[in-house]
Amino acid sequence: MLKILSGKQVKTLDAAHIEFNGITSLDLMEKAALAFVAWWKTIPLNDALQIHIFCGAGNNGGDGFAIARLLHQSGRVVAVFKCFDELAKMSPEAFSNMEKLPSEIQQKVWSEFDPDSDGILIDAFLGVGFSGRLRSEAVEVIQRINSFAGKKVSVDIPSGLPSDELLDGPCVEADYTATFAFPKLSLLFPEHSQVTGEMVLLDIGIGDEEYSRFSGSCFFLRENDIAGVHRKFHRFSHKGDFGKILIVAGSKGKMGAAILSCTAALRTGSGLVTSLVAEEERQIVQISVPEAMVTFSLPQDLSKFDAIAIGPGIGVGRNAELLATIFKNYTNPIVLDADAITILSQNPELLALVPKGSILTPHLTEFDRILGKTENHQDRLAKASEFCQKWNLNLLIKGANSVICLADGRHIFNSSGTQFMATGGAGDVLTGMLTSFLGQGYSEERAMICGVFQHGLAGEIAGRKKRRGTIASDIIEAIPDTFVELGIS
Ligand SMILES: NC(=O)C1=CN([C@@H]2O[C@H](COP(=O)(O)OP(=O)(O)OC[C@H]3O[C@@H](n4cnc5c(N)ncnc54)[C@H](OP(=O)(O)O)[C@@H]3O)[C@@H](O)[C@H]2O)[C@@H](O)CC1
Ligand SMILES: Nc1ncnc2c1ncn2[C@@H]1O[C@H](COP(=O)(O)OP(=O)(O)O)[C@@H](O)[C@H]1O
Ligand SMILES: [K+]
């Protein structure tokens, strides 16, 4: 899995990669520029428009000069705006790429840029080498970039955004950020969504194994991580192998939660799904999900279930007792979502009873309820580590780039998903998927990796056709397609 390094580690990573592969830093910069231009050709931008490229004096600017040359070679109309005035301060790679600019490309200084121009802007002013507070001229450059009304695309990171910290000053407000090699941590903070725009990760040929010598506890989960994590079934596998699970979800007026989580579990492969619901609510479940069995009271022997989930739509009323009973009579990890998390936050004495290794899946509001108010993602991740280590539990913080927080302190950021999943019931679907994988014999870590990635992928597949019209049932319908896309039987 791809490790997320700090901005300061990038130079050492590059140096090792360059030495190991017998290439130069200029070659690596060329790879970065080529990757950027290849991606550029796939995004819906008007090719006829002039491209204004703001270049700094460091290697981020060097990328900008190389991109200018390559876009010009592919027929685009390009102008370069230099954001520095002392040639002596340029990095050697930036200087070399500036020297390679063909004479047809106009070269100006940033203050000559008219923000009312038509076109598209590429921000290659500051990258991961930016540190401290922005100097006053840099603030003016960023203000000029932001006063441009057209689309803005940042190279590696929006200029002014620190790579690993919270934003604390002016910053380019990008529509797209194309980042190289690994996503910089700050691009994954929800607080920065206004400045990062859509983020895309560009491969520049540095293998995942080249990161292993660096310390770090943050990882980025991608499609190629999934197949190896799945369990293999064979032609003699029977429904018992695929797991018997119990889902405690739904209450009067919220029976959809039970239906969505049970259906999602079945679509994820569960052998037998039992739904615990109030007797008067049984019909809706039996009609909507005939494949699920229904029980009206908590079975005496919970050990017959390979996994249990509790929470979606159960209400917070008198359910603390139900939670306590399950915790005392079941030893395997449980999935705790929605109202179960709220009940835990109202009855903190229950936390010590939660089976070790259980998975709590809070969205940001539920997270604050159980762990206390958080100011930002940095604070949230620190609190999550402390909580997981103290209680030996796992947290899955939901949102864009949902984060798997493990008891050993690792944080795994998910790469799949789309804003079209911001729809009621999407979380209930995830609960069903996680419980299904646990029931199929996956460890908590593997269940979370497969569950969160395939949930996001199912959302993407549904969103391709349905866009903002995507509903939770569409995500469920797309779950089987995720197995097909990932080549898993
Ligand atoms: N593997 C990869 O990821 C690859 C990375 N590559 C690229 O290299 C980039 C990193 O390049 P880098 O290290 O040269 O630094 P960079 O971001 O250009 O910043 C330095 C400039 O910022 C300025 N500056 C700094 N602080 C400032 C402040 N407070 N206020 C104002 N100015 C400030 C500083 O000025 P100075 O302080 O020196 O006067 C200097 O001019 C990286 O983001 C990616 O794009 C690819 O080419 C290849 C593969
Ligand atoms: N913008 C987004 N990008 C990616 N995934 C998203 C986005 N918004 C929501 N999701 C996903 O959708 C699910 C929503 O869960 P939740 O908030 O619990 O919804 P509900 O309570 O309605 O079921 C989470 O898994 C979350 O990661
Ligand atoms: K930049």
TrEMBL record:
- The positions annotated for binding AMP are K398, G399, A400, N401, S402, G427
* One Pfam family this sequence matches: Carb_kinase
- Record's catalysed reaction(s): (6S)-NADPHX + ADP = AMP + phosphate + NADPH + H(+); (6R)-NADHX = (6S)-NADHX; (6S)-NADHX + ADP = AMP + phosphate + NADH + H(+); (6R)-NADPHX = (6S)-NADPHX
Q: How is the cofactor bound?
A: Binds 1 potassium ion per subunit.
All residue ranges annotated as the YjeF C-terminal domain in the record:
222-486
* Chain sites annotated for binding (6S)-NADPHX: 59-63, 127-133, 156, 257, 313, 363, 428
In the UniProt record, does the keyword RNA-binding occur? no
Give the keywords, sorted. Answer: ATP-binding, Isomerase, Lyase, Metal-binding, Multifunctional enzyme, NAD, NADP, Nucleotide-binding, Potassium
Q: Which cofactor does it need?
A: Mg(2+); K(+)
Describe the family membership recorded for this protein in Swiss-Prot or TrEMBL. Answer: In the N-terminal section; belongs to the NnrE/AIBP family. Belongs to the NnrD/CARKD family.
NCBIfam families from the xrefs? Answer: yjeF_cterm, yjeF_nterm
The protein's job, in short, is:
Bifunctional enzyme that catalyzes the epimerization of the S- and R-forms of NAD(P)HX and the dehydration of the S-form of NAD(P)HX at the expense of ADP, which is converted to AMP. This allows the repair of both epimers of NAD(P)HX, a damaged form of NAD(P)H that is a result of enzymatic or heat-dependent hydration.
Q: What is the protein's given name?
A: Bifunctional NAD(P)H-hydrate repair enzyme
Gene designation = nnrD
